[in-house]
Design brief:
The protein has about 400 residues and is α/β, with parallel strands linked by helices. The protein is about 20% helix and about 35% strand.
């Protein structure tokens, strides 16, 4: 039986929207009651998050994503229904929540640590690690009211993950800070995933949801529209945002998919050097992309194409298909294809992948998934530092210089 970390059972949550408020004591006692309407931010949410799952929550602004996360964190109490939590929890719902603006960074680390249930000794033991992660050592004795938004984010995230919680809740704060810090956050979350921790993440970055999350839930108007594998939920959400047709689930435009449907790609997985599923690598590691397909008829000389893009800014890095690689591919029924890069030459960052099945000249498209899959690359500590997009093996040499006579 699967162990559940967070369970929402028929959760309803409302807010009062006032149309007229009393501004003075006289108005409060002499006027009629303030008029308001009940706004239901959550409507009957039934959701279970298994232990070890990374769940993404997506939806438009005002759809109820943050309310759902705050209810899970037990910051908000549902009007109806119940939320069950099994395990220690740490939440990062707003930048610097719990920070006192007049206190220094050092004092706020101590304050936040105690609010998260740490003893004074535990806070002191983790202090150096927090400061190193945040990267703002020279500002730790400065009041946080003088911090930039990015500095707030760095310190808040460092404190939230320092307690090694069994459940981590994160609300749209990974988009704050420079690219280097964002990569540190992604790497930390990936480390949490490998340890089997449970993570619930709200983000407007759909590539982040597809890369970091196993499953996703689409919240719309306080209701759950869809829950399932992250890439499928994101595809459905994009289909509605872009107004695609929905008459045929295979041929419909789902944000980044199209084709005749004579052959379809049924699954795409990233594998590590041991053949285990992953979506994060270090530069120089082996990467394998495994595709499962289904062909409803015999198709001869089919090309399977793979393209890799840098996510931000969008740059097309590389493409190849089986025909160009010298592999003849005839499809009939169910099968699989694997594409491997023995030593991944990409430097740290986020990347997107397109996969496709088409005829030899790409005039007839059977199934095309445009930039629908994503993976992260982290810095390899065993390789010398380099900047840019790709890793180039190099050899340096210098001749001894001679002082002029």
């Amino acid at each position: 039986m699967t162990e559940i970390a967070v369970s929402c059972e028929d959760v309803w949550k409302s807010y009062r929207i006032y149309h007229q408020r009393s501004h003075t004591l006289k108005e409060k006692f002499l006027s009629r009651r303030n008029r308001f309407e009940e706004f239901w931010a959550l409507k009957g949410i039934d959701l279970q998050v298994p232990v070890g799952t990374t769940l993404g929550i997506i939806g438009a602004n005002g759809s109820g994503k943050s309310t759902l996360l705050k209810t899970m964190a037990r910051i908000l109490t549902p009007n109806r229904g119940r939320v069950r939590v099994n395990g220690s929890m740490s939440s990062l719902l707003e930048l610097g929540i719990g920070f006192h603006p007049e206190l220094t960074g050092r004092e706020n680390v101590q304050l936040s640590g105690s609010l998260l249930g740490q003893t004074q000794r535990e806070v002191e033991a983790s202090y150096d690690r927090i400061v190193e992660f945040a990267g703002i050592e020279e500002f730790m004795d400065t009041p946080v009211k003088n911090y930039s938004t990015g500095m707030y984010a760095r310190l808040a995230f460092a404190v939230a993950v320092s307690v090694e919680p069994e459940i981590l809740l994160v609300d749209e704060v990974l988009s704050v800070g420079d690219e280097s810090f964002q990569m540190k956050c992604y790497e930390r979350i990936t480390e949490f995933r490998r340890k089997g921790r449970t993570i619930v993440l709200v983000s407007h970055s759909l590539d982040t949801i597809r890369t970091l999350c196993d499953e996703a839930v689409w919240v719309d108007g306080g209701e759950m529209r869809q829950v399932g594998e992250a890439r499928d939920v994101v595809a459905s959400y994009l289909a509605e945002v872009h107004g695609g047709p929905d008459e045929d689930p295979i041929l419909a435009y789902t944000g980044r998919r199209f084709g005749s449907g004579q052959a379809v790609i049924t699954d795409v997985r990233f594998l590590d050097a041991q053949g285990e599923p992953t979506n994060s690598y270090c530069t120089g590691e082996r990467m394998t992309i495994h595709l499962d397909y289904r062909a409803e008829e015999v198709l001869e000389e089919v090309s399977c194409a793979v393209s890799i893009f840098r996510a931000e800014p969008l740059v097309h890095l590389w493409s190849q298909n089986t025909r160009e690689a010298g592999l003849r591919l005839d499809l009939a029924g169910d099968g699989s294809i694997e594409f491997a890069i023995p030593s991944l030459p990409l430097l740290k960052g986020g990347y997107l992948v397109s996969v496709a099945l088409h005829d030899p000249m790409a005039k007839k498209i059977y199934d095309w998934h445009e930039r629908r899959y994503s993976f992260m690359v982290f810095e390899n500590p065993n390789l010398p530092f380099a900047a840019g997009i790709i890793h180039v093996p190099t050899e340096w040499a210098a001749s001894p210089s001679h002082a002029p006579a």
